[in-house]
Design brief:
Elements: E1 3-12, E2 16-19, H1 20-24, H2 31-38, E3 42-45, H3 52-67, E4 76-80, H4 91-99, E5 106-110, H5 116-130, E6 135-143, E7 161-171, E8 180-183, E9 191-194, E10 199-202, H6 204-226, E11 235-238, H7 243-253, E12 259-260, H8 264-267, H9 274-284, E13 293-299, E14 304-311
Parallel strand pairs: 4-5, 4-6, 11-12, 11-13
Antiparallel strand pairs: 1-7, 2-3, 6-7, 8-14, 9-10, 13-14
Helix pairs in contact: 3-4, 6-7
């Protein structure tokens, strides 16, 4: 085998929905203000009975079912999250236990905040290419509302909870392109989850300026590494941070023929869960054909980024 590919996806969101009108009753804001600045209408909120690993487990189970596989077919579990409060057992171990895995899989959590899933997907691809794994379960899961300051109207309007998962396996034809990843360490402070208890905070204008000015060239470079042009993309799934960031970015990348994921409108910012969840929904609705090239690009905390072109399952 010379590469790996995504063979199936799954996603999960809690049932409780928080609308802009609900937020207006909690903090000084309104529907028009929220939509005009971040483009979000609703977000899903997990209750106390739905910790991060439960969200991840639900998404993972759906991905395995869509792949027609059992948990014991997996030998690597990666969970991208930045909202796991407990240090050990890690979220990957808890998901494996919930799934009833007895195949002694390798278990790792990856904390790269909003770009966690694309980092984890690259890690799974590298492990499979090297022969260290044959089939991986890659999950992005975050419970952002648990670390939200509900008195801060600049951040509480953004966050939601959810998870997405992908099954990745060895393939003769590579279906996951080379990753372009990196960071801007001196800007690590612009997105933070700090304190005891931890609280999410960001410098929104700094994030906006960096993403809209720097990210288009990076995304085009990810396409170059995959050997395609932006015009050939059938889909673009960026981190679902803010609709006012996503729309200009997709235009500047030059993906004129691509379906652009806008799941942030209904789901809010779910950090590491946003890319796999948005992609899973596009595939479930049949909006991107199987085998078509899709750009995934995560960015955010640290300030880290990672992107790759994959072939749609």
């Amino acid at each position: 085998m010379t590469g790996s590919r995504v063979v199936a996806l799954g996603h999960y969101q809690p049932a409780q929905v928080l609308t802009n009108e609900d937020l207006a009753a909690m903090v000084d804001t309104n529907d028009e203000w929220i939509r005009s600045r971040v483009g979000i209408k609703t977000r899903h909120i997990a209750g106390p009975e739905e910790p991060v690993d439960e969200l991840a487990f639900q998404a993972a189970g759906k991905a395995l079912a869509n792949a027609g596989l059992s948990p014991d077919d997996i030998d690597l579990v990666l969970v991208a999250t930045s909202t796991a409060i407990d240090r050990s057992p890690n979220m990957a171990a808890r998901v494996a236990a919930k799934l009833g895995m007895s195949s002694a899989p390798a278990l790792m959590d990856i904390n790269v905040v909003c770009s966690g899933f694309t980092h984890a997907l690259a890690t799974a691809d590298h492990a499979i290419r090297s022969g260290s794994a044959t089939r991986a379960l890659v999950i992005g899961s975050d419970k952002m509302t648990e670390i939200t300051d509900w008195t801060d109207r600049t951040t509480c309007v953004l966050t939601g909870d959810g998870a997405g998962a992908a099954v990745v396996e060895a393939s003769e034809e590579p279906g996951i392109g080379p990753v372009l990843w990196g960071s801007v360490p001196e800007m690590g402070h612009v997105v933070r989850i700090e304190g005891t208890p931890p609280v999410f905070a960001q410098e929104g204008q700094s994030v906006y300026r960096w993403t809209t000015s720097q990210l288009p060239a990076l995304a085009r470079k990810a396409c170059e590494k995959a050997g395609i042009t932006p015009e050939e993309l059938a889909g673009v799934v960026l981190h679902q941070a803010n609709l006012r960031i996503i729309e200009p970015l997709a235009s500047k990348i030059g993906a004129v023929n691509a379906v652009v994921a806008r799941d942030v409108v209904d789901s809010g910012n779910t950090s590491a869960g946003s890319i796999p969840m948005a992609l899973s929904k596009l595939v479930e609705r049949g909006e991107i054909p199987s085998g078509a090239p899709v750009l995934l690009f995560g960015f955010g905390g640290n300030l880290s980024y990672a992107g790759q072109v994959i072939r749609c399952p």
